[in-house]
Design goal:
This protein has 120 residues and is of the alpha+beta class. Helix content is 35%, strand content 20%. The protein is built from three helices and four strands; from the N terminus they run αβββαβα. α2 crosses α3. It is globular. It starts with 9 loop residues before the first helix and ends in a 14-residue tail after the last helix.
Length: 120
């Protein structure tokens, strides 16, 4: 993912978690708040409940790839934090992508209004 689309500082992560709205799914949690930019910025995290470093990094890679494939479907002007849940590691790829798109639709951040038209 391009650097301009990433949240990098811990203060940004904290601001999104503190002031943004959160949406939960069994595979991940999405927190979002508006930013003053022309593009979306995303941060991904996985807590120690996921397991060791290998499991946490795999969960983050899976979410990052799902985001990369669907970045053009996200409304610009938002900061998003995705938090992986342990169930993500045992989910199939379609389930992971569906979870991300469902969270984005519930947050009102999908450009295609949550309609799945099969153009993946």
């Amino acid at each position: 993912m391009n650097r301009r689309h990433r949240l990098t500082s811990s203060s940004d992560f904290k601001r999104v978690r503190r002031t943004g709205r959160s949406y939960a799914h069994p595979l991940a949690i999405l927190a979002a708040c508006p930013n003053d930019r022309e593009h979306v910025r995303v941060g991904i995290t996985a807590g120690r409940a996921m397991g060791g470093a290998v499991q946490r990094n795999r969960a983050k890679r899976l979410l990052r790839e799902a985001l990369r494939r669907n970045l053009n479907r996200i409304r610009p002007g938002w900061d998003i934090v995705l938090i992986a849940r342990p169930e993500l590691l045992s989910a199939s790829w379609p389930q992971i992508e569906h979870a991300l798109l469902d969270l984005l639709a519930r947050a009102g951040l999908r450009l295609d209004n949550g309609l799945d038209n099969g153009d993946q």
